[in-house]
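Ligand: glycine. Inputs:
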Amino acid sequence: FFALCDGDTAIALAPAQDHKRVFDHDEGPNTGGMGAYSPTPFVTPEVHDQIMARIILPTVAGMKKRGMPFKGVLYAGVMLTAQGPKLFEYNVRFGDPECQVLMLRMMSDIVPALLASCDGQLKNFDVRWFPEPAVTVVMAAKGYPGDYRKGTRIEGLDDAAKIEGAEIFHAGTVAKDGAILANGGRVLNVCASGKTVLEAQQRAYQAVDRIKWPEGFCRRDIAWQAVEQERAKG
Ligand code: GLY
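Predicted complex:
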């Protein structure tokens, strides 16, 4: 759950769900995040209001009271429990890869929002969102989050970006002699938006399938919870 804070108040950004384990069905070791989607159906308007009222706004007020007003992006790691939302960690940054899906969904320009946060002007500010869901699939170097090779060649990126609604963010690449080479563990964020989570998911994987990178891999089940819920609702 992401909120923009200006020292006095906070406005919620869109919620997103990350997939931390390296393999499908949440198996294998933890990673920085293998994919994300937004919005998440689990953050209902009621849950959203609870998170703001019980977690975000008291934090902003508490920081101010201690003489340490916080301005910037507050990233609340929240677990939804039978007793309501519980905070288990804060970061003072965007999430990666959650930020990528937020940026696809953000209708407003992020820069004035960040300036309003700096200038203490959020109470007069509004951030608008496209309703269409967005999904991002992380392509990582084989071996990640353990040892992996750098310098392997990635092709097909232009072709992948032609999929409707797709957008590819580079996370760990380098351009060398006209080629794109992997230069990290999490290497590409293959994102797409769509009318439904299923459509966004299908488009993201269509784009993934156009990328020619034998030394890379990705999870194949990003956003499955939201797709299942969409199916159940018919
Ligand atoms: N995706 C988790 C994080 O940014 O910490």
